Amino acid sequence: MTESGERSQKPSLLTRRQFDWRGVRLAAATAGIGVLGLGGWLWSNRRRRYLNAARTDVTSNNSLESHAAAKGLIYGAAVVPGWLDVEGIARGHTDDGYTQLVNSQTGMLVDEYTSYWKWLRPTPDRFNFKSIARLMRFAELTGKRVRGHVLVWHEAMPGWFQSVANKQNARELLVNHIHTVAGRFKGRIETWDVVNEAIEPMDGRPDGLRKSPWLELIGPEYIEMAFRAAAEADPQAKLAYNDYGIETNLSREVRKREMVLALLQRLKASGTPIHAVGVQSHLWPGLGGEAGLGLQEFIREAAKMGLEVHISELDVSCMRVKGKPAELDETVARIYGDYLNLVLAEPNVPLVITWGITDAHTWLQSAWLLNAADKRRIWVKIAEGLRQRPLPFDNDFNPKPAFWALRAALDAAPQHSTATTANG
Ligand code: XIL
Question: CA-CA distance, 20 to 101, in Å (whole number)?
């Protein structure tokens, strides 16, 4: 196996900005819309402002990280490693707003997407750890915990997988991937999302398992196999099962929650090394569901099995809510508050991770553009009026109502015993 080393990693902020500007023109040209004219603007233009703006200080003791830590809790965020000014941090100073924001607010980081198979495995025998290594370096320099995401998922698979994987080699492919990836960062990842989204009630199986390529190639035992391989590769890491659509009292979510619970029970019964369940928490007000007693009961059932429950990908979509931006911000904040007050009251919920940190970059609203210059994909902004507002900080990295709601929920939480490793 070969891999690209970190040596080839030399992003310069200036260069990235230039690339982004090309992205704007590309966006306007390809989408046929005046991205800038519509009020869209680029991420990178606002990146520097965090430090300099005069506003309420929410850094150091006032940060989400500090308020979480005061309760024995962890606050973290999914980040894009390529956007972190690791070189600046290593030198002891960065002007980069995104880097400052991530550094000042979080106690834990998750690689938002560059640890997917698709990114890590350009070919069947080559691993590319460049991006995740960048995140690990940043985490080491800043003393952040890291959550690994994700070892087994049916999405974001590389193009070669379909033609290469078959019933004869699938087990080896799976185990080898886990040994290589989890083994490489052994002792440095606090929790691995080992298996993601393996339950899909609509696929109609009595056990609720999704008809994923892994299920079809290996059978239901692929899940246990993955956890065992992860435990072999990194015995200290906590190992998590992670899923979505299990938060509210909508009937389909209640059903899925039951099936996830049944899966967890089967895994525990077979002695599978599993320590946590991630509840993604991509919340969608306006669909008619609410998080309540059912979720609380799920968390308590997990506790009985000795499992932690991680709020692993929190954000709030406004797709189904109407209102002016300020009203939407209030709605999002109310959901943050209600949801976190419910879940953080439980002693086995030690952490909250938001899926991103600023509305300037969210998977809920983004457009992928291929940057012709360096073949990287970049994110550009979409028209202001269409914006999603799912995260604690706004486009200019100012704290939003969701920030204050999140911080207040951390303050209101009972004292938790700080999360440790898989073995204690
Ligand atoms: C999202 C990423 O944020 C995007 O960049 C990517 O294009 C699609 O996936 N559940 C998960 C995450 O476990 O990995 C997903 O992240 C969001 C849903």
Answer: 20
